[in-house]
# Entry
Amino acid sequence: MEITKKEIIVSTAIISFMMIIGLFISDEIENGKNEKNAEYQKAIHIQNAELFRHGMNTNVGNAFVYGDLEAVKPVTFEEIGGNYIYVRKVEEHYTMHTRTVTTTDSKGRTHTTTQVYWQWDYAGEEEIVCKEITFCGENFSVEKISMPEAHYLQTINPNSDIRFKYYGVNAKLTGTIYTNLSDSTISNNSDFFEDKTPEEALEICISGAGIVVFWIFWVLLICVMVAGFYYADNKWLET
# Structure
């Protein structure tokens, strides 16, 4: 593929235009992040149940609160036992599949064959969630706090072709929530940082990873656009 001078000029213009747009978007992200960081840094830190209760009753606003999170009535599947806030059972079937494979021999001749292979395929799932939790000794509906990602528990194979994989969130956790304390309660979907102090949770919240992720995505997008432009039929540039 031969790249002409006109294509280089146009691709340079594309890169410049996309970089200008990227800088504008990046500034908007940075401004939003700075506003959010200011909110996080002004939030109070609470590490005992009495101050937590007082904060809700007096509408103190945003806070990082450290404490124990527990299920009021833990849930589980009978076959695995244990106690969990949330538990999920994923069913998988060991299924036969076929695929077409094309190879080339030493003489340049192609040969097509059908291969058979087996793999575990998703076949449905079932989940159970407790309805009520306590945090710092106060009762809330489970929807009030965003739970951490469920971790793998175990696998049960009733036979060679079917298996069930179990995932769960333990019935008791310790960590920090970021929330708004008002009207004698906490905000919905309050973020929970497992095994983190309020100071550690704050550091996670104010990290600048969003800008880095954006620029990685944006540079890759520019590369794809320029590559696509070079591979396109650009005869219109010859006129």
